[in-house]
Design goal:
Length: about 400
């Protein structure tokens, strides 16, 4: 991908300025990146539990450390993209990510897996704002919604399949999660080197009706209040799930399949949101999603039933899909897909992946042997998020009434 600056300007062209082949290449690189990210940022906890006997506390500490690395990587994307050619950056990231995963292939030790997971997370986080700005800049609001839907379907669908089969890989191929990751990034590098990008333009002339601005601003605020809580849940669940009795009672090959139901549900939510626009003018749908997310997390982790876990995972997947899609869409549509806004979106993800696992690990330290301590700590984060979203929503209603 000769990834030219997304902010370069030329004469007006049709809104769908990027050829399909170029967009297909961007989304393919995204899918391959999602394979590695899900193996080494979610599947890694199942790997550590099976291979080295890690419990929830160690997994939570690792997950929190990955969250810190994620923030650093996400925030580094914008200054790096301002200084260097994007094709070179993405290609370099693929090389580094493949080399890091190769360390996990060569050294079958817990210290190697921890180091790989930490540094891999930082470089993986840096590539997402670049990819998001590449497919989004210059698109009209309607076209942007379509592209974001495809983007979300690609990474979430790839992630769901990857996590579902991760258990089989862990059981049958000793260093399989690292081997697959190396292959994915080498394939990405090959695609980047052979794909050329079209000239991209700004579509300020396609700005939406100013009357929609307050609604979109509120929707962005609510979704970005809930976004850190969403990823606090995702990464805390990733660390806690391998130790839950319901998961432990399942055959090792199928544990990640049971734990990936919420990913499948989130994928269908993205599909629905991409086919509709009703949520573009209903910001309080994000508030409802935050409440559902809170209730579903408690039910998944506290109710000892496989059926209940499956049903509540469906609910939490829908809520997470709504929150994530809104944060990405409204951030992009209000900034013409700027890398800075995308980096901020990704940094909030990193913040959540520090808060959830970090508070969970801290709670389990102060209350060792209490399986509910870390769950309660994460639940408090979600409750604070819900209260904050309610307050912002009520404030907005009050201003409109005046």
């Amino acid at each position: 991908m000769a990834l030219l600056d997304c902010q370069s300007m030329t004469s007006p062209t049709p809104p769908d300025f990027a050829p399909r082949r170029y967009l297909a290449a961007v989304f393919t690189v995204e899918a391959l990146g999602a394979v590695g990210a899900n193996l080494l940022m979610f599947g890694i906890f199942f790997y550590m539990q099976r291979r080295f006997g890690w419990g929830a506390r160690r997994n939570l500490i690792l997950s929190s450390a990955q969250g810190a690395a994620y923030i650093v990587g996400a925030l580094a994307a914008n200054p790096l993209s301002a200084r260097f050619d994007r094709r070179m950056l993405l290609g370099l990231f693929q090389v580094v990510l493949a080399l890091l995963a190769l360390v996990g292939v060569c050294f079958a030790a817990s210290w190697a897996a921890v180091c790989v997971a930490f540094f891999y997370t930082a470089f993986s986080a840096a590539q997402w704002p670049l990819l998001e700005s590449l497919f989004s800049a210059g698109a009209s609001p309607v076209e942007l919604s379509r592209r974001i839907s495809i983007y979300n379907l690609v990474w979430s669908g790839t992630g769901a399949v990857t996590v579902a089969v991760c258990g089989l890989i862990i059981v049958h191929i000793p260093q399989g999660i690292f081997v697959v990751t190396v292959a994915a990034h080498l394939a990405s590098l090959a695609l980047i080197l052979r794909t050329r990008a079209p000239i991209q333009i700004s579509h300020a002339q396609l700005a939406p009706d100013p009357q929609l601005l307050p609604m979109r601003t509120l929707a962005k605020r609510l979704s970005r209040i809930a976004l850190p809580a969403t990823f606090a849940v995702i990464y805390a669940m990733g660390a806690i799930m391998p130790t839950l009795p319901v998961i432990q009672s399942t055959s090792p090959e199928y544990r990640t399949l049971l734990a990936s139901v919420w990913m499948i549900s989130r994928w269908f939510c993205f599909l629905f949101l991409g086919a509709t626009v009703w949520w573009h003018t209903r910001p309080r749908a994000m508030l409802i999603a935050a409440i559902v997310q809170f209730a579903a997390f408690l039910a998944i982790t506290l109710v000892p039933s496989a059926l209940s876990m499956i049903l509540w995972q469906i609910g939490i997947g829908i809520a997470m899909g709504m929150i994530y899609a809104a944060s990405l869409y409204f951030g992009m549509v209000l900034s013409d897909g700027s890398t800075a806004q995308n980096a901020y979106h990704e940094a909030l993800i990193g913040l959540g992946s520090i808060l959830g696992p970090g508070c969970g690990a801290l709670a389990s330290t102060f209350s060792p042997g209490n399986p509910h301590a870390s769950i309660t700590a994460v639940g408090i984060i979600l409750w604070i998020s819900v209260l904050t979203a309610c307050w912002v929503s009520l404030q907005s209603r009050g201003r409109r009434a005046n």
